[in-house]
Specification:
2 copies of one chain form a homodimer. In chain A, 24% of the residues lie in helices and 30% in strands. Chain A is of the alpha/beta class.
């Protein structure tokens, strides 16, 4: 059955982006360090139409598996605005992306299969649409942190992966805050390690 | 060669203890949940002179290995005060423990091999004494968080293990804060997973 998930790179001190992020400073100060492992992998680079990259390692496999399972994305307005200024012409999603925003805007169709839909409906209703679009594939809650927190608190996430980079960055956007822990519990499903990052997959249980 | 290390249980949101900790509330509100996996293991319980507990699993092995390598401990005053009110007659260390405090106090000898030494020397000088006491064994920086942070920032930690419990607790004592990241970098050495906790061992590099 189709699942709802998120996966994010995170520092040892819990940040998924550095401070002062925005269209001119994507991922925030030093935020790119959290994702260094990812920017080296072919499976990531080819989504940005960049040649090269590493293959035949667990990090690349994990990225490939994640991309392959996504049938639709949901993201917050700030993430979209930051990406709009930085993604290539061919946006790196290749499927529908639902952007949570109060701004009225017509769907934005990009070459390569990405269409952005702008909506101010409830997160529940947006998820229903995303699931319909995804078909048998999964829905990824792309971020940012606040959107992920909203979906977790609403009991709407089935599983998630964090990719822990062995660094501290000291400031920025925390992932696991503003959570209502009465609404879920987590179970460890799988852990995969590589020299540069540790991938932890959790199942969300007892959703209320 | 003898190493200096720390190992701590930690929640997914980075807490090693809950809020409102103290002698009457050891580990703070809900802090015990971070360590549930540990309180089940024979290797931990036997240090508290409690019978029973699980064996033949990686969690128990990891605790046993850690206890076996410790030749001396260093801890902060608050951790000591919290423990003094709660440890059994036979303190669970069985080797010298150096307590960082401005309080003058004679060494406190406990049955079972633990002696607490109270010192207001610099963290560097205390570490020298702990190393001498430990001989060929390792020195554990027991905690709390502020003491671990001081030793990390001084470039005095060789390696550390975090035991990540799949929970969020939302408030309490953060481990990875107040760190001067210019003073070190981390390298992943080993990751061991079990159904209830993920153990991540890091080497500290580029100590300055």
């Amino acid at each position: 059955m189709s699942k709802v998930f998120f996966d994010v790179g995170i520092s040892l001190d819990g940040y998924i982006a550095g401070p002062n992020g925005g269209p001119k400073n994507p991922l925030g100060d030093e935020g790119i360090k959290i994702h260094n492992w990812m920017f080296k992998q072919k499976a990531f680079l080819e989504h940005l139409k960049i040649e090269g990259g590493e293959t035949n390692n667990v990090d690349n496999d994990i990225i490939e598996n994640i991309f392959n399972r996504i049938g639709a994305n949901i993201m917050g307005k700030r993430m979209f605005v930051e990406g709009e200024a930085n993604w290539p012409e061919e946006s790196p999603f290749h499927c529908p992306v639902f952007v949570l925003t109060h701004e009225k805007r017509e769907p934005w169709i990009r070459p390569g299969g990405t269409t952005f839909y702008f909506t101010d409906e409830s997160i529940q209703d947006v998820l229903k649409k995303a699931k319909q679009s995804a078909g048998k594939k999964d829905v990824r809650i792309s971020g940012g942190a606040k959107v992920i927190q909203q979906y977790l608190n609403a009991g709407l996430i089935d599983e998630f992966t964090i990719h822990i980079a062995p660094i501290v960055i000291g400031a920025g956007v925390q992932l696991f805050e503003h959570l209502d822990k009465s609404k879920f519990s987590f179970e460890i499903k799988e852990v995969v390690n590589s020299p540069e990052v540790t991938h932890l997959l959790y199942i969300v249980k007892n959703k209320r």
